[in-house]
Specification:
mainly alpha
């Protein structure tokens, strides 16, 4: 019994090997069923029409990238103008703060003098 099962296993392995060989033959370059789709796929990929389509896509891509770079340049110029305006405004704000500080100092002195003089006079009496 054991011999029979071993023989069956051997036969199955031989049949598997032969089916593998048949599959290898099917994918071989000599097989016309393999060559035709392969050539068709290569032709579809590398034909002049395919190259023309790829070139057109590249031209469209380059045109769009040029538009994006132009937009970027315009935006950068606008940002530069805004930063210059912001710097000018910051300088103006600094001047206004200095002016405000001087006004506050003068006002404080006036109020101090206003309240201090009457208190000093009352203190003398």
């Amino acid at each position: 019994m054991e011999e029979e099962s071993n023989m069956k296993k051997e036969e199955e392995s031989h049949s598997n090997d032969s089916s593998k060989k048949e599959n290898d033959k099917n994918t071989s370059f000599a097989d016309p069923n393999f060559i035709t789709p392969t050539i068709a796929a290569l032709w579809k990929r590398y034909s002049p029409l395919a190259w023309s389509e790829m070139y057109n896509e590249y031209v469209n891509y380059t045109a769009r990238m040029t538009e994006i770079y132009d937009e970027y340049a315009k935006t950068s110029q606008r940002m530069t103008e805004l930063y210059k305006e912001m710097a000018t405004n910051a300088e103006r704000m600094t001047e206004l703060y200095k002016e405000s500080a001087k006004s506050t100092e003068r006002m404080s002195k006036n109020w101090l003098n206003y309240f201090w003089k009457p208190l000093a006079e009352k203190g003398k009496e």
